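Weekly structure sync, notes
Attendees: PL (lead), two postdocs, one rotation student
Agenda item 3: pending single-chain targets
PL asked that the sequence for the first pending target be pasted directly into the notes so everyone works from the same version. It is reproduced below exactly as submitted, 706 residues in total.
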Amino acid sequence: MVSWEGLSDHDNYHGCCRLLGRFKVNYQLSELVNVEIYSDWIRLVAEFTTKSLQSWQWASGGVYYLLGLWSRLVTSVPYLKGDTPSLLDETVPKIIEGFIKSRFDSVQAGFPDELSENPLDNVEVLQDHLESFPYLCRFQYQSSSLYIIKVMEPLLQTYTEWARLQVPGDSNELCIVEGQLAWIVHIIAAILKIRQSTGCSADSQELIDAELAARVLQLINVTDNGLHSQRYTEISKQRLDRATITFFQHFRKSYVGDQAMLSSKLYSRLSELLGLQDHLVLLNVIVGKIATNLKCYTERCSSTYIIQCVQNEEVIEHTLSLFFELASGYMTGKLLLKLDTVKFIIGHHTREHFPFLEEYRCSRSRTTFYYTLGWLIFMEDSPVKFKAAMDPVLQVVISLESTPDSAFRTDAVKFALVGLMRDLRGIAMATNSRRTYGLLFDWLYPSHMPLLLKGIAHWTDTPEVTTPLLKFMAEFVFNKAQRLTFDSSSPNGILLFREVSKILVAYGTRILSLPIAADIYNSRYKGMWVSLTILSRALSGNYVNFGVFELYGDRALADALDIALKMALSIPLADILAFRKLMRAYFGLVEVLFNNHMVFILNLDPSTFMHIVGSLESGLKCLDASVSSQCASAVDNLATYYFNHITVGDAPPSAAAMNLARHIADCPSLFPEILRSLFEIVLFEDCGNQWSLSRPMLSLVLISEQ
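Predicted structure, written out during the meeting:
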């Protein structure tokens, strides 16, 4: 008789689970089975695990450790030496059954406590539950798959019968069935995610995968038909659809696309069961489900249904994530372009066909949607097809451009402008080559750039509008993968920077004149850090010869630097260091200025110069390695300039060098203080960027030899 005394205390129970979870880490299975009491121990652990699964409301936190132990035990079986039985073939099936039954019981009982979150709604918790369980299923894959199919088929039959009903019956019963199906689909998805199996050949493993996948695909054929097509606002339906998207994501990685085995036995079995012969037919099913989700999960939300609204957004985000995964794969992207559904989406991405584009709550998802469309559009590399695909966007642009100034401050214009900026940002993100970027640049410049200035001028006090607009501009001027490479005779780089300057000046002058609001980050700092990011990307993009501006008396560069400096100086250093994104944008710009525009820095008045250099010393002490590296680079450039132009420089020194000498004369301890801080950091702190921090130390030592 075993006593479970003390395990009713939650801390004791959790500690016991963690202890068991460490067993296989410290002992090999071959060592464990040779222990005299192994058979008693393994049965007791199995009994303890079963009881924990049954107590799902109380003991869910410990299940992660217990399943981890069992998964490590079963994956060690192929390496087991000797004839001593492991007894896992007796215990593991009971644990599989206990786990599935406990998930079904949790759906049946519900989560009445408001503090108890349904695992189906939390990706992290769901991942914890299903991280180890598939290894148990793959241990005796044939028998465990038969059990899963046996459990799923009655639910699938019931759900199919519900679809045929004209009048809804007991909705609570239907919600329970959907919840249980969601768990089964998540479990099958997790099994397909891993390909490791013991005691099962690769071919037979694929045939079993096909049997499980076929049941999920049968379910998907039903989920959007009949009565179920009216239930998109129901949380249980949304959980089931999120599970099917997860299934498609894991199935794709194993059996569709770039890494999939073209000669897979799985498709021959799916062809027999469902008539799905190959990748392309299955991709059509996946894209059909994607299109259905994007069309149907857009019910307008009232305050009463706020939870359903959040779930709606999560389904759309999850669906778009799958769509992007498919589009961004080279092989799957090419296959998608053959499908009529995808051709329709590329040509008809309007709110009439995809109502979520009109839903303001889903406006963030628009960027992902158009990022995916951009991938597909640019994969064909056809200017004619690009212009045709951009026609719906062009209609929005023309509508906004024709709106008179007196009517530009309406909600309709606001939502249209926000949506347009998010759409364009997604398309800009998808341009990864000189040719594709050129298509977008020629489409936008010069005819439609004035719309951005018009938006800034009318909506400066509304961050919901200015932030997407500025973020689009930050993406548009970002020279990733050398996509902003214009011909040697082209003025486009200079013309683009002039537009950047106009937008920064328009935004900066207006935002600095507005009173400070209570939510200072969202109303002020967020737009400012995006503006600083725009300028730093434009200055470091290597597509503009900035000497041209001064040579021809063009104030674009001077005005952009001036307004950026004013915005940066309007923010207290403590606030810069407190907000991570603001800090990265500020020090990113400072590094670029000290690297490429040293004369501008040295011509500043003494107090401004000292403030900026003083901020570098604070940045060096920052825990963010990227920020401290940027500050170290800026200090290195400044000290190197001093050494080259003053310490060993030719006489007479330049005006900028004389300014630097005056700044240092006013504060002779400036360089020694920074050098001391660097030595303290390198010697006494555990920093991962010592090489970056050590670079300015040489130049500082050389100018302070004494």
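Discussion points:
- Confidence is low (pLDDT under 50) at residues 300-307.
- The two ends are 81 Å apart (CA to CA).
Action: rotation student to compare against the earlier draft before next sync.
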